[in-house]
Amino acid sequence: MVSALFPIYARAGLAFERGEGAWLIADNGERYLDFGAGIAVVSLGHAHPHLVATLKAAADRPWHVSNLFQIPQAERLAQRLVRATFADLVFFTNSGAEAVECAIKTARKFHASSGHPDRYRLITFEGAFHGRTLATAAAGGNPKYLEGFGPPVDGFDSAPFADVRAVEALIGPRTAGILVEPIQGEGGIRIFPAEVLARLRELCDEHGILLLFDEVQAGVGRTGRFLACEHAGVAPDIAALAKGLGGGFPLGACLATRQAAKGMTVGAHGSTFGGNPLAASIGNAVLDVVLEPGFLERVARMGAVLRQRLAELERRHPAIIDSVRGEGLMFGVKTRAPNGDLAAAAQAARLLTVPAADNVVRLLPPLIVDENEIAEGVARLDIACAQLEKQVAADAGAVR
Ligand SMILES: *Cc1c(COP(=O)(O)O)cnc(C)c1O
Questions:
Q1: With a 6 A CB cut-off, is 130 part of the ligand 1 pocket?
Q2: pLDDT band at 370 (very low <50, low <70, confident <90, very high)
């Protein structure tokens, strides 16, 4: 049967029927170790008992009432995000792109409400990914995502990756702020050095502009800290969260300091679905687990185990693996063979991964992954690397 879905995804021929923790069971019964976690979304793994119980209980209460009314679940979730981060205020969305969109609008409105409506431009970085709406695609600047969609939304100036000099040169009277992923996800797990983030913070303070962190992929515990920017000890004025926040339920958030959000007054922005009781209940359930004492420390510990194992793998397969980089449970394996080949070989070994730019294969296991599962995942990646080596050797033989 011909699919009735927009043919915009290159989907693997796999469908899953059940999930348990870090495992997905395909409809033919095969068990896959899920180190993609639905692109860093299924932060607590599949069918986490606390999330399932929360969802079932929330299903019997009003799912949606609109933001015309009080939503205690969203109030509570916002309070908890504020307590866990730099932020004073939160706006809830249904996706990462909407969270970034709100961050962009909040920054522009900050300057407009300060008497500088002409200060609307954001400095961004090469390799960035901020979403697929018109504005967030323009912010990301990837020509692949802009081509054919008319003039890109104006207001973004791209600097080379982590290039502070270039940023300094780009700051002008129309600059509203700097938008950056502390760790680029889609860009290939490229980590901004702590001193670069610190320098961006200084530049923002010197010029009276805002620092915006896109933590849609790296946030909510993925790196072993609640926000990835905590590793650098740098706080933004505004941040976007999403992927891991709902554990698989569509939920995003734009976080801001009270000062940065000063232009976001009644009527300035909105969302029909954002922060509805159902979504907020599940967000709270995710935080019940992620903010539990010791949870983030455990993520960091499992991350250290994964790093160690990947380092061994890199030594065993120098012809396949160029390098390994990451933080917490957010890793990228830069390959010498095409990354799609390694991802396909991993899938054949029943390990799910996610390709990224810069010829990287991403490993983003659920944050509840244990040491045995990490060992098993890397063992499967080892099989995939060996398979690729054989393939490379065979191809070389065929050429000769
Ligand atoms: C995934 C992602 C987005 C976009 O999120 P959607 O939910 O797909 O809109 C934005 N920024 C980053 C860093 C992401 O990884």
A1: yes
A2: very high
